[in-house]
Amino acid sequence: MLGRCAAEVYPPIGQGVHETLLRLRRRLAFDPQYRGLTETHQVAEGMMRDFGRRAKEMLDRRTAESDHILQVTSLTANLLAARDRSYLEQFREVLRRLQNASRNEDEQELRDQIETITASVARTVETFQDDSKLSLAQLAQEIEEFERRRVSAQTMTILDVTTGLYNHDELQRRIRISMRVKQQFSVLKLSVHDFSALNDQLGAAGEEQLMKLVSERLTEQVRPRDIVGRWSPRVFLMIFNDCPLSNAESRAAQISRWLSDTYLVATKEATLAAEVHVTATATEPQPSETMDEFVARAEALSPVPA
What we know:
Layout: H1 2-9, H2 11-30, H3 34-102, H4 107-155, H5 168-180, E1 185-193, H6 196-218, E2 227-232, E3 235-241, H7 245-259, E4 261-266, E5 271-283, H8 291-300
Antiparallel strand pairs: 1-3, 1-5, 2-3, 4-5
Helix pairs in contact: 1-2, 2-3, 3-4
């Protein structure tokens, strides 16, 4: 119920909360022990607090954007009104001069006055056109920026579309949070190899289906307090909380063996058995490392095929 509520309140983040809570519930079905219940309670509570904070940040951002739109609209209206008043005065002056010229009985002077007035009107029209182009260009720029933010907000998500696991950006955020609170953790990277024949026969759809199958088996290895996500198209990343590197390396070897197997991949085109080889490597933050340095090292960390 909490997951559904979160997904309805703010889908880009709430859907991830919903999926994670469902995963926690499935884990409890296999191990409903006191320790598992305690860990699940802590993870769920922390997740809901994080969701509330992020939802509030997004609401504050939307409010600030609405205020900005109102300010821009008000400023634009004032500028356009001032411009219109300026040109209205100029056209009134032209009308006054035409009225005066109409009473001139000297034809040559009348022609000279009309030519002068015509040139003045032409300059005013050109200036008006330039001002209008500038105003419209500024408005178009503001509208383009608002549209960019709107699209960005709509497409923002914390989940990978295919696997339902956390995506790259959310994994980075979780790593930074763990380092900020000085929590002990290790990072495990898993790379999926040796299915080029699958890609040749089933294409990208077959590869995505395979990654979904691997991710489903991978989530069985995740404790409630651990985090798993899709780092790149063929790489998964796990964050082991309260886990030293020695333990993480041992688990990396176990998980890679567990995931290396024959997977039956079915798409609309065909069904194919894919022999998959998974390799893994692990690391942990060093005492002297900053957040950016460790994230950069995690980016460069590459499980090399055996």
